[in-house]
Write a structure and sequence with these properties.
Blueprint (H helix, E strand, L loop, with lengths): L4 H52 L8 H4 L2 H44 L1 H4 L3 H17 L14
Length: about 150
């Protein structure tokens, strides 16, 4: 059996973006379906609980607040955005050094194997790394010291 690698490379070139887009859409659909199922189960359990209370003449339990309003999604999104901002400053040095050393390694490998013209492509990740390292030191953001719990509280 003989494989035609030229045709395989073209097929993979088309298949990778299709799978990436399909995977992203599938992830969104799974999130929506699981959220709907969770809400439906909560509603069914609450309905059974209310019917039991009505049969027994007990006080009716209140509806869960997250069953009716959709604010929990917006609050979670806002919280994730707020928590991501400080992380950008903390990760600037680490990602900058990573890009810098990746560029240096790539440059050395290309210089040894292909020459100086090809090794000049390594200046791109080196420049990204330097920019991130400079950003880290220019931003002046220092991580907050860990908070100690009060012993008197």
């Amino acid at each position: 059996m003989h494989w035609d690698l030229g045709n395989l490379a073209g097929t993979l070139g088309v298949l990778i973006p299709v799978l990436a887009i399909g995977g992203g859409l599938a992830t969104g659909m799974v999130a929506i379906v699981t959220d709907h199922r969770r809400r439906r189960e909560i509603y069914e359990m609450h309905h059974k609980e209310r019917m039991y209370a009505l049969e027994r003449g007990l006080e009716l339990p209140p509806l869960p607040p997250n069953l009716i309003d959709d604010d929990h999604v917006e609050r979670a999104l806002a919280d994730s955005i707020k928590s991501a901002r400080p992380r950008r400053y903390r990760n600037a040095l680490r990602s900058g050094l990573t890009w810098l050393f990746v560029g240096m390694g790539l440059g050395a490998a290309l210089y040894l194997n292909a020459g100086i013209e090809q090794a000049s492509w390594a200046l791109i990740p080196i420049g990204l790394g330097l920019a991130k390292v400079i950003f880290h030191f220019a931003s002046g953001e220092l991580p907050a010291p860990p908070q100690q719990p009060n012993a008197g509280s």
